[in-house]
Design a protein that fits this description.
Helix content is 37%, strand content 26%. It has 254 residues and is of the alpha/beta class. The chain has a single domain, classed as 3-Layer(aba) Sandwich (Rossmann fold).
């Protein structure tokens, strides 16, 4: 069952006085099945960040549709959009976006507080999630007191505590050292194995090699995609690297 349907997305930006038009997306279509782990890759300027912003309902397409659980996101009123995002989408950003004046616990609780969730329910959700992400011992610390890896796991907990339809990750390992990145990718694999749908934009071949499917964006379109199948991470890594080489050297769309 498709949890996300992207239909012929086009995005054109026009300068303030209408003098120049930049086409960030020309015709993007794909679906994401419930429980899938999909990575999106592409060179800078390929349109992948624009695509993620539209999927996150932070931007609107010029043409085309995005359906989440069959619901056209364009039909959601602006005043209802924040609640829709909070209830259906979880976000993990490269730069964590944690509030330094809030404890780790309160940072994680924030979307539930905004949703009016009872405190008892928040605590019931937090305990197993914190244990799974290995942050139970730091819940009363503040972001400036913990490592980059712990910050990103905190951000992941904040994204997952709402039990979103899709977890959207934007370069989630970009600010982490290799050890912390490996730890986060293992967590993503674990929660995906438990049924969480993940859509990740990344430049990292290593991060993408943990996904079940990799979409490559070039010139505002889906250029190619790879499926894991029976491939190991190492085999998928090599396939991804080869595809990126084809893209960078002007290869034809497959």
């Amino acid at each position: 069952m498709a949890v996300l349907e992207v239909q012929h997305l086009k995005k054109v930006y026009t300068t303030r006085f209408g003098g120049n038009r930049v086409q960030a997306l020309s015709d993007v279509s794909f679906t994401v099945e419930k429980g899938e782990y999909v990575a999106i890759m592409g060179e800078s300027g390929s349109g992948k960040t624009t695509l993620l912003n539209i999927l996150a309902s932070l931007d609107r397409p010029t043409e085309g549709k995005v359906l989440l659980e069959g619901r056209d996101m364009a039909g959601i009123r602006e005043r209802d959009m924040a609640a829709f995002r909070r209830d259906n989408l979880g976000f993990v950003f490269q730069d964590f976006n944690l509030l330094d004046t809030f404890s780790v616990r309160d940072n994680i609780f924030l979307p539930l507080v905004l949703a009016g969730t009872p405190h008892k329910e928040m605590e019931l959700r937090l305990e197993p999630l914190a244990a799974k992400l290995g942050i139970s011992e730091i819940l009363d610390k503040f972001p400036y007191e913990i490592s980059g890896g712990q910050k990103q796991r905190t951000a992941a907990a904040r994204a997952m505590i709402t039990r979103p339809q899709i977890l959207l990750a934007d370069e989630p390992t970009g600010a982490l050292d290799s050890r912390a990145a490996d730890g986060l990718l293992k967590i993503f694999n674990r929660v995906n194995d438990e049924g969480q749908t993940i859509l990740m934009v990344t430049h990292s071949v290593k991060a993408a090699s943990h996904a079940g499917r990799v979409l490559f964006i070039k010139d505002g379109e889906v250029f190619h995609q790879l499926y894991r199948g029976r491939k190991t991470n190492e085999e998928l890594y090599q396939n991804i690297a080869d595809t990126l080489t084809v893209i960078s050297t002007g290869g034809e769309r497959k």
